[in-house]
């Protein structure tokens, strides 16, 4: 009898989550010992391999199957029915993860999608096994699930891949320092003695961050007590709005407010934008009112997730740089390459 996906996995499947931490934890930090993995820059995807076919679902429960026909075709030949995988759908351009091309999968017309799939095929990186041979194994410990996943993946060929994992913090630190050149965002850390808890932030994540000088040309909130920095960088010959900061602490807001002035002359940005201008992946279409200011250089700390013309996540404001001229700020080379 052919095994099938257990009924407990009726979509949407609740996936385990990770909370952000500031540094790479020690080897004994999590139950059963820490297990370190790269943090992939892709679409989180739950793969259900049933007797009738393959389905891919996002963390929010969106059916991604039609956007990844290459993965839907490849999975049944290498993963038997009755398996449920947790992982990431990714696309590589040369030796670097390419989130922009991945994003195009969801906005390309049905007619144009096959050509895009042929030109830019996707890969799937599995990092957990939630069901095997029709059995729900989420209550098993990570070390047990990982052993089963490694057995399942022993003969995999691209586009299926097993995410590497190490128990060695020194190795993890090398990954953290080196793999960002390939577009990986940092590390995910899990406990070998943890079961799989959907919807719970019992994993940890450490994102690699980089200091960047940007142009603050607007803020959200009053000029003397701004709530958020709205930043710009020169993209294609103009100062493009590239993102906003997290909420400013009171001390930082006062410090920045002391340097802000009303704009002199024409300003490159409108006074009202949409939420999607600040976050292209937001479903919120509501307007956002900007307080336009005379451009000022500020230093920020941002993770490495860059979409090609914006930061994908909110950045942290660090300090004003009034000694620098906004006209001298350039788009960092690593963003041009990304």
Short description:
With 338 residues, the chain is an alpha+beta fold. The chain has two domains: 7-207, 2-Layer Sandwich (D-amino Acid Aminotransferase, Chain A, domain 1), CATH 3.30.470.30; 209-337, OB fold (Dihydrolipoamide Acetyltransferase, E2P).
Explain this structure to me?
With 338 residues, the protein is of the alpha+beta class. It has 2 domains: 7-207, 2-Layer Sandwich (D-amino Acid Aminotransferase, Chain A, domain 1), CATH 3.30.470; 209-337, OB fold (Dihydrolipoamide Acetyltransferase, E2P) (Beta Barrel), CATH 2.40.50. The chain has helices spanning 69-74, 99-107, 113-119, 142-152, 169-178, 250-257, 275-278, 333-337; strands at 18-20, 34-39, 43-50, 53-57, 83-90, 92-93, 96-97, 123-132, 135-136, 160-162, 186-191, 203-207, 209-220, 228-235, 238-244, 272-274, 287-289, 291-303, 316-320. The strands form 5 sheets. Strands 3, 4, 5, 8, 9 and 10 form a 6-stranded mixed beta sheet that branches. A hairpin with a 2-residue loop joins β3 and β4. The termini are far apart.
């Amino acid at each position: 009898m052919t095994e099938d996906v257990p009924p407990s996995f009726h979509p949407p499947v609740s996936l385990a989550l990770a909370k952000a931490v500031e540094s790479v934890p020690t080897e004994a930090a999590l139950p059963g010992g820490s297990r370190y993995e790269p943090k992939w820059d892709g679409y989180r995807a739950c793969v259900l391999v049933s007797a009738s076919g393959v389905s891919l679902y996002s963390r929010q429960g969106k059916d991604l199957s039609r956007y990844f026909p290459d993965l839907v075709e490849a999975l049944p030949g290498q993963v038997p029915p009755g398996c449920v995988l947790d992982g990431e759908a990714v696309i590589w351009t040369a030796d670097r993860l390419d989130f922009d091309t991945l994003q195009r999968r969801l906005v390309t017309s049905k007619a144009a999608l096959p050509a895009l799939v042929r030109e830019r095929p996707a890969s799937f990186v599995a990092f957990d096994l939630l069901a095997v041979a029709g059995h729900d194994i989420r209550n098993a410990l990570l070390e047990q699930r990982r052993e089963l996943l490694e057995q399942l993946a022993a003969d995999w060929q691209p586009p299926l891949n097993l995410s590497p994992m190490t128990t060695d913090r020194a190795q993890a630190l090398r990954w953290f320092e080196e793999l960002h050149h390939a577009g990986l965002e940092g590390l995910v850390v899990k406990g070998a003695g943890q079961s799989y808890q959907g919807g719970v932030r019992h994993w940890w994540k450490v994102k690699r961050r980089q200091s960047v000088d940007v142009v603050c040309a607007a803020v959200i909130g009053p000029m003397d007590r701004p709530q958020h920095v709205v930043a710009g960088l020169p993209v294609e010959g103009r100062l493009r709005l590239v993102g906003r900061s997290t909420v400013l602490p009171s001390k930082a807001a006062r410090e920045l407010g002391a340097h802000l002035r009303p704009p002199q002359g024409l300003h490159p940005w409108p006074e009202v934008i949409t939420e999607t201008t600040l976050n292209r992946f937001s479903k919120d279409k509501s307007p956002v009112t900007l307080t336009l200011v005379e451009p000022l250089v500020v230093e920020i700390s941002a993770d490495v997730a860059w979409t090609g013309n914006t930061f994908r996540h909110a950045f942290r404001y660090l300090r004003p740089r009034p000694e620098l001229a906004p006209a001298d700020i350039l788009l960092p080379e690593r963003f041009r390459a990304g």
